[in-house]
Amino acid sequence: MKKSLIFLITFFFFISILYAEETKNVEFKPYGFVELYGWYNDAKFANSDLPLFVKDEDKGEEMSMSIRKTRIGLDILFPSIKAVSLMIKGEVDFSGNMASSGTAESRPQIRMRHAYADLNKDFGIGSVGILVGSTWAPATPNIFISGVNPSGGWGVGNIWQRMPQITLKGKLNFNKITTGVLLSATRPMSGNSANKGLFSEVGDAGDYSLMPMWQGQIYTSGDIGPINFLLGIGGAYGKENYKDGVVLPNGTTLEGDEVDVQLFNVGLQIKHKYAGLAGKFYMGKNLNVFGVMGADVIKDDSGMIVDGAKAKGYWIQGELKPVSTLYISGGFGSEDPDDEQEFAYNSIRYSMNSAIWAYASYTFFERFLIGFQWTHLITETKDDVKLTGNSYMFQTKVSF
Fold first, then answer.
1. Which of 2, 86, 160, 338 makes the best surface tag, with the fewest CB within 10 Å?
2. Sign of CA dihedral 319, 321, 322, 327
């Protein structure tokens, strides 16, 4: 681990200096931030620094802090290539293990966030291209909740994932408006990823389907007067195969039929210099790989998997920026799973999971940011029990 960390730091921070004289052929643009964030939770949540749902509102108070979200990235450009534009991106953070683990802070594990090559050909009014590697799932518009942890929202209406993929791209430009399409074959990841414990027998219900997950998105973005907007409509279709049995890391064997993964979602973001509005809506089934906690699989009385559980959800957020250094936002999100689903976490079954949040940040010297977030979670179980809890988070972040 120490050798890997030394290598990454050396690579990302010094490669641009070592090759400064060769920037006519290759350009290196490092970026990232160092962030310390902390939290106090007044209830027991699934996950501590990324609350998913309430497990017990009377027990589980905790307070801690972490630097795991610190991020290092590098863009590699090739300006000497005139016929096309080519970029290689690599980005990592240190969230490879959970915040509650005993070695989370003294020996954090490096996690890959993005690693891909992006090739594009411009033809005047637009461009075509291909992306190969791992990055955001093309089915979900890249619109996120604002906050100390922008990944928040899993289980309460916000869906996303990063996936290995081959994506064909095309876009047209009309004045200040761009309209594009993404068509992609991604790794058929499943929420019930299986690992039999031996490198020679790694398996996954998606891999066993013998087909990629097909994803696509149509989007339009640009400026209308002082308003900047992004509208994206995306979807995904895949399969998971349990016919021959799938063994989970805990030794549990899942058996059943071949079941579908289906997703439709739409995202909208509108921004003005001083205010903004954003949100998403989704519906589909067997969507736990996208962060939908209540969209797993449906089992019959004998425990055999017979279908994917349906779910729908949404989130909406408003934001204000009265001055360039101050940002304020707040919103609400909710997930409504199918009544037949069996919740993946310890078989806890719930009828709805919702959250209300508020966030504020202030930026000093263009690089140094402090922020605070309050999140109120409401988890309603199948037994008509309503569990609530609050999470309070702060952050200090220096970007480069």
1. 2
2. positive
As to burial, measured by CB atoms within 10 angstroms (0-12 exposed, 13-18 middle, 19+ buried), residue 232 is buried
Q: Which pair of structure tokens corresponds to residue 129?
A: 């291209």
pLDDT digits (tens, 9 = 90+) for 214-271: 999 999 999 999 999 999 999 999 999 999 888 776 677 888 999 999 999 999 999 9
Kindly give the residue spans of alpha helices, DSSP state H, lying in the chain: 2-18
Non-local CB neighbours of 20 within 8 Å, separated by 6+ positions: none
Does 198 score more than 50 pLDDT?
no
264: tokens are: 């439709």
For residue 392, give both structure tokens: 């309070």
Task: For 362-372, write each residue's pLDDT tens digit.
Answer: 999 989 999 99
Give the Cα separation of 121 and 105 in Å (integer): 44
Residues 311 and 283 sit within 8 Å (Cβ to Cβ): yes
Rounded Cα gap, residues 285 and 103, in angstroms: 36
| Among 118, 210, 208, residue whose Cα is nearest residue 165 | 118
In degrees, rounded to 5, the angle at the alpha carbon of residue 318 between the alpha carbons of residues 315 and 321 is 145
For 208, the 3-state DSSP assignment is helix
Integer Cα distance of 155 and 345 in angstroms: 12
Sign of CA dihedral 6, 12, 14, 19: positive
The Cα diameter of the chain in Å comes to 68
No. of H helices and E strands in the chain?
A: 1, 25
Residue type, 135: T
Give the angle 41-45-46 at the CA atoms, nearest 5°: 140
Q: What is the DSSP letter of 93?
A: E
Report helix, strand or coil for 97: coil
Q: How far apart are CA 138 and CA 240, in angstroms?
A: 19
Cα 77 to its chain centre, rounded Å, is: 25
